[in-house]
Please model this.
Amino acid sequence: MRLKSFHAKTMSEAMKAVRQALGDDAIIVATREEEGGGVRVTAAVEEDDQYAPSAPRVIPKPAEPEVDVGELVADALHRHGVPAALAEQLIDAAAGLDTEDATLALGAALDALFNFHPLPDGTARGPARPLVFVGPPGGGKTLTIAKLAARAVFKKRSVAVVTTDTVRAGGVEQLSGFMRLLKIKLHRVDDPEALGGALDMSRGVDLVLVDTAGRNPFDDQEMADLRALLAAGEVEPVLVLPAGIDAVEAAETGLAFRKLGVKRMLVTRLDIARRLGSLLFAAHRARLAFCDGSIAPKVAEGLTSLNPVALARLMMPGQEKAAPKAAKSKVAAAAHAMSSPSSRTLP
Model:
């Protein structure tokens, strides 16, 4: 117990001094009047560390919460509606990368399970095979062709555009309007023989793009007609599939077009879709490579080549976290590899 005496003119002043020095828990042991005037109060208090002299208090910085990369990846896959079996494979693949950046971990997992092979833009040496864009109705094939044509024109490459979509009301007019702005002649054909002739006329052009009418992937006759169209020349069919549809339906659609020789899938509506699990499921089930993605409705922009990290960023916006210094070089090397235009080959 600690004792201390206080002298003051009045009892009130003495008690105030006691409280200020020893706190409200002080006990008054004795009081007396001094001969020269005033009062003396002796008070006691239990010894406590709060009254002992100490160094200035240093408030420690709060520790950074540990980043559970696996949990972040799992949460993103669940949010995007990725089927359980595929999500489990991606989580296992993500666990193998030593990084605290969940986006990079997901990108590594996507790179391990999927193929990425962007479409040519006409800059490669020699003309590429004509690209024929196929898919269900309303997927965005016509707008995609306009974007690809604009991208090639801006790079000063020669472009030829052919449409076989002569049945849909306004189909030819829509594409024709785009081509007029780009000063590209639009070739209109009605059957496989006419398509073959248009392709022959376009030999030597840097980039040849062919639009087709939307086909019901579950209608045997429509798919047979499309198969005959694709046999008109040495072409590559590319599936155009919108994001945000049912995962099982997307997978079945991918499988139906895979039977026609499709190996690449171009994704549209990435600017409005909030769940991309259907695209992963379709690509996985049908063994399709991701090529490009449409992220805006404008013809002059909004088409980008997809790679594992780009797709991971679409699935995990705002989740990037700087990697630890010790792992910077390793993480940077992995990011560079996954950010290349074509990190894997076609299946």
